[in-house]
From TrEMBL:
The keyword Mitochondrion does not apply. Coiled coil: none annotated. Pfam families: p450 (PF00067). This is Unannotated protein. GO terms for biological process: cholesterol catabolic process. The keyword Iron-sulfur does not apply. Belongs to the cytochrome P450 family. The lineage of its organism: unclassified sequences, metagenomes, ecological metagenomes. GO terms for molecular function: cholest-4-en-3-one 26-monooxygenase activity; heme binding; iron ion binding; steroid hydroxylase activity. Gene3D superfamilies: Cytochrome P450. Keywords: Heme, Iron, Metal-binding, Monooxygenase, Oxidoreductase.
């Protein structure tokens, strides 16, 4: 439904108080997309991500240690949220006393994605985004004179080789572009990973034979993560605008029409996967799932998310003996047709011998 003139003014006011919201990697087309990708790709090179594993493992073990004696936890609050939040905060050098703000800013960034919230709720969320922008703008400006070994400094100093034939616009990132990229990293770095971690433990608890296989052989962790991504795709799909008239599945589509590409549907394609609704980490074509998209817009943070899931599966299976889902669970999902994840999940468990 179109906004009224009064509602439009509300958004004009809130936007004026922040930095411009500019399209970057998620929504930009060529040639802008190639420029952005070049400028941030080095910070997410597989070697750089692999070097984060000790930090991810340290955070993971610390979280498990904080509740291993309880026997029952609300998994989203105690593990699903804090693990990816702390990991991406570490990459951005966000101090511990701002972690709650960090999570709130992430929630504000996705408040209107695939949901049915009021105009006032959307406006309040945009004020939260402004707060995020001003905080990170200050941090980026500090790094102009005090560079650090972190992602913000890397973005600030990122450049494109003079002889790169695919990029004609070789400008470094301006402030609005850097803030847009950090915002995307904030959301992709924790919202989707939280949902994946929670679905992973739910599926393992519902399939005790797979839990036992993982405990006996932690090297199965990567398979478990991939099957979770396939079966419980956290980002269900993505909007796209057609650039030309075409026909898809017998339906005529026209240039300029907005469509949603549903990754979750493709991930249950009967032509590719046997028993697509079942949880089977040993199935073929696991890496062909579309949880992180495909093509030039393939998620830049895919390796980081997969690594967090792998480390989590390894450490949880080492430190927990048995795990079950509490009878009190209502299995309520985040009210969005784009982002799918449980709002909470009560789990009961017994600690493995020598878990502490």
């Amino acid at each position: 439904m179109p906004l009224s003139s009064a509602d439009r003014e509300k958004f004009v006011d809130v936007m004026a108080a922040g930095y411009p919201r500019v399209p970057t990697m998620l929504t930009a087309d060529q040639p802008d997309h190639t420029r952005y990708r070049r400028l941030v790709a080095r910070a997410f090179h597989p070697k750089v991500i692999a070097e984060m594993e000790p930090v991810i493992r340290e955070i993971t073990v610390g979280l498990i240690d904080s509740w291993i004696d309880k026997g029952r936890i609300e998994f989203v609050k105690e593990f699903g949220v804090p693990l990816p939040v702390r990991v991406i905060a570490k990459a951005l050098n966000v101090p511990d006393d701002r972690l709650a703000d960090f999570k709130r800013w992430s929630d504000d960034s996705i408040a209107g994605i695939g949901t049915n919230i009021t105009v006032e709720q959307r406006v309040q969320a945009e004020y939260g985004v402004n707060e995020f922008q001003h905080y990170f703008a200050e941090q980026i400006n500090l790094r102009r004179t005090e560079p650090q070994d972190d992602l913000l400094t890397n973005l600030l100093n990122a450049s494109i080789d003079d002889d790169d034939p695919e990029v004609t616009d070789k400008r470094q990132l301006d402030m609005a572009e850097m803030l847009s990229i950090v915002q995307q990293l904030l959301v992709a770095g924790n919202e989707t990973t939280t949902k994946t971690l929670t679905e992973m433990i739910r599926l393992l608890a519902e399939n005790p034979a797979e839990w036992e296989k993982l405990k006996a052989d932690p090297s199965r962790a990567e398979k478990v993560v991939e099957e979770t991504l396939r079966l419980s795709t956290p980002t269900q799909g993505m909007w796209r605008i057609l650039t030309k008239d075409t026909e898809l599945g017998g339906v005529q589509l026209t240039k300029g029409q907005r469509i949603i590409i549903v990754f979750a549907s493709a991930n249950r394609d009967e032509a590719l996967y046997d028993d697509p609704d079942g949880f089977n980490p040993d199935r073929e074509h696991l890496r062909e799932n579309l949880a992180f998209g495909k093509g030039i817009h393939f998620c830049l943070g895919a390796n980081l998310s997969r690594l967090e899931g792998k480390v989590a599966a390894e450490e949880l299976s080492k430190r927990i003996d048995t795990i079950t889902l509490s009878d009190s669970n209502k299995y309520e999902y985040f009210p969005s047709f784009m982002l799918r994840g449980l709002t909470n999940l009560e789990v009961e468990f017994t600690a493995a011998t020598g878990a502490r």
